[in-house]
C-alpha cells in the first residue's frame, strides 16, 4: 500500500530485470460479461479481511448478486439506469463490507471513471471511518489495488493514480459537500443523520456526472419525517409499481409489523445472511433478552428485524425492580460509591450510594421548598407528602440550595467508607467549591451522560437487578424515577437514559446508574485467602 502522507505514492512491485512482468489477468475484464457481472467479478477478487473467513476471497450470495444485478442493469446502449439505490437491512448482514467493495469498484475497479469523486458519508466521524478502514484492509489484501491506490490516513482519503479518482470519508458536516461533484456515494446509516442538508447536497452535486450513483445502506428510522423514512416510502412505491422510476432501485429487508418478533421464521425472512455469516446463536440470545427486558424489545425490533420502532423504552420491568426490595441493613463503615445528579435550580437533585460488597442502595433527594405545590401540579406526584416524610429534603427558597447537598455528603463521608463520587459535569462547580470550603475530602469522578459512559452503567445496573443482587429499601421517590425511565439506543445497541422522552423525573435512576457504573469500572480489592479459610496448621 502507498505511503500515508501528503505527496505519497503507491508502492510498486519490482520484478527482476531479466524477467518479463507477468501479465495480470483481471476477472472483471473477461469478454462477454455484463456490467453487473463485472462488478461481481471485481468484488469476488477481493479478500475477506476479518472473522472466521479472513483471507478467503469474497463469495457473493444470491441475494447480494440480485442487488448488484438490479443496480447495475443497463439499457441497450450499455448505460446504467439507476442513479439512486436503497438497501434497508438489519444490522450484521455485511453492509459495511459490501459498501466498501462497491466504493473500491468505483474508485479503481470496472466502474471507475477519470477523475471520479467517491465518498462514504455518515452521521459522525467514527461511523464515517468504518468504511474507510474496511477499504484500506481490502486494498492491503489485493496487490492490484495496492500498486495503484495511495492511502492517506491523516485525512481519510484514497487516490487512484491511474484515473486520478479520489475517495474521501465524510461525516455530517454539510458545508463540506458544497462544490463537490460526486460520481459515487455511499450513505451509511442514513437513519442516524442529523437533518437532510448533507444528503441533499450530495444528491444535487451528482448533476455534473453522466452516470452518478448514490447508494444508501441503513437500518430503518423511527422518525417518519426523516430522510431515511422518506426513501423507504418511495422505495416501497417503486417496488409495488405505484411509482414508476427506473432511476431508483430499492431492496428492503424488514419484518412485517404484524409478524411474531420471536418466531425464527420472522428472523430469517428479514435477515438474508442469518445462519450464514450472520450468527443465529447471537440473535437467539438477543431475542431472549428482549423478551425479558421491556427496554430491549424496541431496540431488537429496530436493529434485528429492521422495523421502524422507536428505540425508547422502559428501562426496567417494575416486577424485577420490586423483587429487589429488602429491609435496611447496618451499613455504617461499609465501602460505597456515590452518584450525584444535580438538577437545574428548580428541579429534583438526586444522590445515590451503592455498596458493592452487599448490593445495598441508599438514596437522597432535594427540591426547592417554595415550589412544592407547583411541582406537584406539574409532575402529578406528592412532593409535599414526601417532604413531610423525610423522603425529600425541601431546601428554602425557589432554587435548590446546594449547601444542603454538600452537608448531606459530609455526613455520608463520615458514616461510610466512600471510595468516590461520580457526577455529571453540569452545575457541579459550586458543589466542588463548597466541599473544599467545608474540608470534605472526597474523590470526584466526572461521568458523561452520553452513550459512552451511560451504556455500560445501565448494563451493570440492569444485570444486578435481573440477578437479584441489588437490594433497595423501596424508596418511593427512587421507585418513581425508575418507573419513569426510558432509554434511547444508537445503531450499535448502546443505551442511555432518554430524559426528553421519559414520562417524569429520572434523576434518581441517573444517580444510581452512575454509582453502580463507577463501582463496576473500579477494580475491587482482592480478598485475602486467609480471611476465607484461616491459617493452615502444617505441623498436624
Can you describe this structure?
- By secondary structure, the protein is an alpha/beta fold.
- It folds into 3 domains: 226 residues, Rossmann fold, CATH 3.40.50; 48 residues, no CATH class; 204 residues, 2-Layer Sandwich (Nucleotidyltransferase, domain 5), CATH 3.30.420.240.
- 35% of the residues lie in helices and 16% in strands.
- The strands form 3 sheets. An 8-stranded mixed sheet has the order 3-4-5-2-6-7-1-8, with helices on both faces. Strands 13-12-11-10-14-15 form a 6-stranded mixed sheet. The protein has a 3-stranded antiparallel sheet with strand order 9-16-17.
- Strand 3 and strand 4 form a beta hairpin.
- The chain starts with 34 loop residues before the first helix and ends in a 7-residue tail after the last helix.
Amino acid at each position: 500500500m502507498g505511503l500515508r502522507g501528503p505527496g505519497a505514492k503507491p508502492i510498486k512491485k519490482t520484478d527482476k530485470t531479466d524477467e518479463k512482468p507477468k501479465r495480470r489477468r483481471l476477472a472483471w475484464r473477461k469478454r462477454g460479461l455484463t456490467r453487473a457481472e463485472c462488478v461481481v467479478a471485481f468484488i469476488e477478487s477481493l479478500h475477506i479481511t476479518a472473522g472466521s473467513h479472513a483471507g478467503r476471497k469474497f463469495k457473493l450470495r444470491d441475494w447480494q448478486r440480485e442487488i448488484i444485478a438490479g443496480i447495475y442493469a443497463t439499457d441497450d446502449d450499455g448505460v446504467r439506469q439507476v442513479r439512486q439505490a436503497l438497501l434497508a437491512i438489519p444490522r450484521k448482514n455485511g453492509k459495511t463490507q459490501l459498501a466498501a467493495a462497491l466504493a473500491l469498484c468505483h474508485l479503481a475497479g470496472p466502474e471507475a471513471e477519470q477523475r471520479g469523486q467517491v465518498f462514504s458519508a455518515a452521521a459522525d466521524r467514527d461511523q464515517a471511518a468504518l468504511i474507510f478502514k474496511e477499504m484500506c484492509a481490502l486494498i492491503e489484501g489485493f496487490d492490484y489495488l495496492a500498486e495503484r491506490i495511495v492511502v492517506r490516513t491523516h485525512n481519510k482519503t484514497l487516490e487512484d493514480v491511474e484515473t486520478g479518482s479520489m475517495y474521501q470519508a465524510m461525516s455530517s458536516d454539510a458545508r463540506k459537500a458544497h462544490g463537490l461533484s460526486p460520481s459515487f456515494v455511499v450513505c451509511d446509516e442514513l437513519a442516524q443523520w442529523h437533518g437532510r442538508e448533507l444528503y441533499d447536497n450530495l444528491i444535487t452535486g451528482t448533476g455534473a456526472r453522466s452516470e452518478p450513483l448514490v447508494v444508501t445502506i441503513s437500518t430503518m428510522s423511527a422518525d417518519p419525517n426523516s430522510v431515511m423514512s422518506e426513501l423507504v416510502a418511495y422505495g416501497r412505491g417503486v417496488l409495488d409499481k405505484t411509482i414508476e422510476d427506473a432511476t431508483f432501485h430499492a431492496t428492503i429487508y424488514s419484518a412485517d409489523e404484524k409478524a411474531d418478533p420471536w418466531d425464527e421464521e420472522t428472523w430469517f425472512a428479514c435477515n438474508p445472511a442469518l445462519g450464514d455469516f450472520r450468527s443465529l446463536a447471537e440473535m437467539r440470545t438477543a431475542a431472549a433478552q428482549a423478551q425479558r427486558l421491556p427496554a430491549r424489545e424496541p431496540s431488537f425490533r429496530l436493529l434485528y428485524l429492521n422495523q421502524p420502532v422507536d428505540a425508547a423504552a422502559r428501562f426496567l420491568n417494575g416486577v424485577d425492580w420490586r423483587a429487589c426490595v429488602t429491609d435496611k441493613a447496618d451499613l455504617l463503615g461499609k465501602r460505597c460509591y456515590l452518584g450525584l445528579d444535580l438538577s437545574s435550580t428548580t428541579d429534583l437533585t438526586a444522590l445515590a450510594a451503592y455498596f458493592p460488597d452487599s448490593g445495598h442502595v441508599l438514596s437522597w433527594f432535594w427540591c426547592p421548598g417554595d415550589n412544592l405545590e407547583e411541582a406537584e401540579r406539574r409532575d402529578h406526584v406528592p412532593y409535599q407528602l414526601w417532604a413531610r416524610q423525610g423522603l425529600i429534603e425541601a431546601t428554602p427558597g425557589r432554587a435548590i440550595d446546594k449547601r444542603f447537598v454538600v452537608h448531606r455528603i459530609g455526613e455520608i463521608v463520615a458514616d461510610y467508607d466512600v471510595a468516590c463520587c461520580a457526577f455529571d459535569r453540569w452545575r457541579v462547580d459550586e458543589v466542588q467549591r463548597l466541599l473544599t470550603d467545608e474540608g470534605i475530602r472526597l474523590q470526584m469522578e466526572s461521568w458523561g451522560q452520553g452513550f459512552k459512559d451511560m451504556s455500560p452503567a445501565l448494563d451493570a445496573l440492569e444485570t444486578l437487578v435481573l440477578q437479584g443482587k441489588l437490594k433497595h429499601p423501596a424508596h418511593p421517590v427512587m421507585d418513581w424515577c425508575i418507573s419513569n425511565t426510558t432509554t434511547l439506543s444508537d445503531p450499535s445497541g448502546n443505551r442511555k437514559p432518554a430524559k426528553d422522552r421519559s414520562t417524569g423525573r429520572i434523576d434518581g435512576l441517573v444517580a444510581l446508574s452512575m454509582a453502580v457504573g463507577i463501582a463496576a469500572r473500579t477494580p475491587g480489592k482482592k480478598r485475602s485467602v486467609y480471611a476465607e479459610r484461616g491459617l493452615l496448621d502444617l505441623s498436624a
